[in-house]
Amino acid sequence: MSGVSVITLDGPAASGKSSVARRVAERLGVPFVSSGLLYRAAAWVVGRVDGDPADEAAVLALLGERRVRLEPSLVGDRVWVDGADVSEELHTDAVDAVVSTVARHPRVRAWVTERLREIPGSFVIDGRDMGTVVFPEARLKFYLTAPVEVRARRRVGERRADLDAVTEAMRRRDHLDARQLAPAADAVHIDTGALTLEQVVDAVMRALSGVGAP
Ligand code: CDP
Ligand code: CDP
Asked: pTM for the full model?
C-alpha cells in the first residue's frame, strides 16, 4: 500500500470478517489485526480469576494489574498477558460466553480503542466499530453480513458443536453487540451469505483498486 492506510472490516460474528481480512492483508502485504482479540483477552483475564464480567470497575482493575499486549504480525497476531502467549486460549466457548458482556463496558472499549490506535503503519483490521469509532478516517471501510443461520452453520463447521445451541448463542451475542454493530455511513456493504470466501475477497480487492490501493 502506498502511504499509511487502515482498511476496516466490521460486521457480526462469522460474517467472514477475519477470514476475508487475513486474505486481503496477505494480498496487500500488510498485517491483519483482529480487534476482537483484545476483547477476548479481557474476557480471558476475568475468567482466570472467576471475576464478574458485568462489573465494569472490577474488570478494569484486573486489566490494570495485567500487562496485555497485542502483537500484529504477517503470519498471525499473538496476544500476551504478563509475558505468556495466550493466543490459543481465546477462541473457546467459555470466552465466547462472557466476551460481549465485558465488551459492553465503555471504559473497557476505551482501553481497547487506545491500544488499537497505538498500532503503527498500514494494516487491515476487523471488529464491530472499527469504521465508526476507532478509525473513522480509514482509507476504506467494509461491512459484512450474512443471515444468522448461515453464520451459525459456519461456526459449527469450525468447532464440534450443536447447531441449535450455536445459533442461540450467536443471536444472544448479536443482541449484546447491537450498539457497536451499526455500520459506518460510508462503509461498502457485502452480504457474504451466498458467496465463497474468494468471491468476498475479490469484491473487497475490486473496491480497493477503485480507491487506488494496489
Ligand atoms: O469472530 P467473532 O466475530 O465471533 O468475534 P471477535 O471479532 O473475536 O469478537 C468477539 C467479541 O468481542 C464480539 O462478540 C464483541 O462482543 C466484541 N468486540 C467488540 O465489541 N468490538 C470489536 N471491535 C471487536 C469485538
Ligand atoms: O471473523 P468472523 O467471525 O466474522 O468470521 P470468520 O471467522 O472469518 O468466518 C467464519 C467461517 O465462515 C470461517 O470458517 C470461514 O471459512 C467461513 N466463511 C465461508 O465459508 N464463506 C464466506 N463467504 C465467509 C466465511
From this structure: 0.92
